[in-house]
Design brief:
Layout: E1 3-8, E2 20-23, E3 41-44, H1 54-64, E4 68-73, E5 76-80
Antiparallel strand pairs: 1-2, 1-3, 4-5
This protein binds zinc ion.
Amino acid sequence: MPLYVYEAKEGGCGRCRDGFEISQSIKDAKLSECPDCGAPIIRVIQAPALGHSKTDLNYRAKRAGFHALKRVQKGEYEKIY
Ligand SMILES: [Zn+2]
């Protein structure tokens, strides 16, 4: 399943404030609020160069289920494990 990155528009909790990844089916509706705190969230386009291939990323996501992301700069994310 493809991995999407969401981030709170404003406010948010520890999970969504700095963005988080979630794996969703293409058929699933886009999330509009944080599953944890209900803050409004938007889907952000993932930076292409994260140092992982898409396959590697999907594999990691499957294994970890979820990981937090830290915003390094606009449009760029750094993983925090
Ligand atoms: Zn939240």
